[in-house]
């Protein structure tokens, strides 16, 4: 991409309020004021920035700035603080993450359905691009809510175009391992946009139970020869969480379908 096209994204008129909104594995999110409007800015950790060349960083920021969808948090621009080489990604401000919401209150079931539908719409938008955009870190932490509880997918900083997977060596997915499909955690991973579908299945379980569906290593024993392996479904690995969800819940079949294709090998 032409570097000149990135210039409108640079934000010289920005004031940091020093009010921290949150922090995670990839950076710290703070409140900033841009031309009188409250925004959120993520300052990437140094190790994350080192993974990018300036050209690649510029291309990906430009890519994200062109995404326009009501269920995708809008990237506004890039700000380079004085005397710092670490950029800040400036985004629209939303007051609450889905994780915070689930921790603070018990949402009505229909509101949970509405939030999950919003996330699905945003995900379909990203995957519908040509080539698809793979988020790679879809969790409740990266779903933000408006004051009316509309949901938007945030944190596209580690997403990738699907066709770049053919051109670059893939590293282990940078997201939360508990919501990643097994193939994405291999030493030489091979995956595509279906990675996000698996994470969405985990998100359904998280929203319905209020708990992150952490997989377990405890399985029902099977009679096999010593040292052999058995195929274990990801659905079974999360059975302790799933059993608390009423079986008549209409989203359970969808969650199971999202996780069905993923299996792990467990040594007996």
From TrEMBL:
GO terms for molecular function: ATP binding; protein serine/threonine kinase activity. The keyword Flavoprotein does not apply. The keyword Protein transport does not apply. Pfam families: Pkinase (PF00069). Gene3D superfamilies: Transferase(Phosphotransferase) domain 1. Keywords: ATP-binding, Nucleotide-binding. PROSITE patterns: PROTEIN_KINASE_ATP, PROTEIN_KINASE_DOM, PROTEIN_KINASE_TYR. Residues 15-268 form the Protein kinase domain. This is Protein kinase domain-containing protein. The lineage of its organism: Eukaryota, Metazoa, Porifera, Demospongiae, Heteroscleromorpha.
